[in-house]
Amino acid sequence: MTAFFALTTSLLWGLADFGGGLLTRRTPALTVVVVSQAVAAAVLGAIVVATGGWSEAGPRLWFAFAAGAVGPVALLCFYQALARGPMGVVSPLATLSVTVPVGVGLFLGERPGPLQFAGIAVAVAGVVLAGGPQLRGAAVQRRTILLTLVAALGFGAVFALIAEASTDVTGLFLALFVQRLTSVAVGAGALAVSVRRGGRAVPRSGFPWASLPALAFVGLADVAANGTYAIAARHGPVTVAAVLASLYPVVTALAARGFLRERLRTVQAAGAGLALVGTLLLATG
């Protein structure tokens, strides 16, 4: 069950990143984040009301609040790092986020077997390679590396926090709702500051209403991924769930290949293969 839900997480996050990447080509990144998260928050709010989720309110919601505050900051750092480039360095480096939940799992006493340790090493190596790391070229600015590491730390923190935010499915809906409301508030604040400094909230042609379904998909896929990850981490070792969930860059690369006809570099294809081998080792270990 852990492997199934963790791999579902990687699929949803990979597709959400692919969709978000396409949308930010035409719409400011902060606007994409705020609108997509607002749609997800509205849907989750309706689910919470329908299921009586408010009855599950308790101290664990502070974990959801923290995840919601950290998430937009991590995304903003990640987008800024990508803007400074090169993507071939930034994207693989961001996968270091997996070290946070894996470290938490080890700290809490989880001890994967030898086969699972091998699977973790192979899968992480595969994910890094699937990002198409840039092995040569101009030196990367120190600020770009710093932004990427902050983003990785933030993404990893969200992994760890959302896993602790609830103990049952009803409570999970409430936790995800609180997370999304917080994300919208933080993102909207950042967007307001950006506009005040001369940035744009929407393209010159106006709000892209035709993109609203795609924005909704990105937001809902992202929140569903958080939910499936929380379930995976609850039903099995966090160390395994985190690594399998971190395979989303492979999904993004394959989506670009399938929908945009982007050709995978040899190193990316090799990385996808290694990620698959690591997945099999983790699932069978």
TrEMBL record:
The chain crosses the membrane at residues 28-49, 61-82, 115-132, 144-163, 169-195, 207-232, 238-260, 267-284. Keywords: Membrane, Transmembrane, Transmembrane helix. The keyword S-adenosyl-L-methionine does not apply. This is EamA domain-containing protein. Residues 3-130, 144-283 form the EamA domain. The keyword Transmembrane applies. It comes from the Bacteria. GO terms for cellular component: membrane. InterPro entries: EamA_dom, EmrE-like. Belongs to the EamA transporter family.
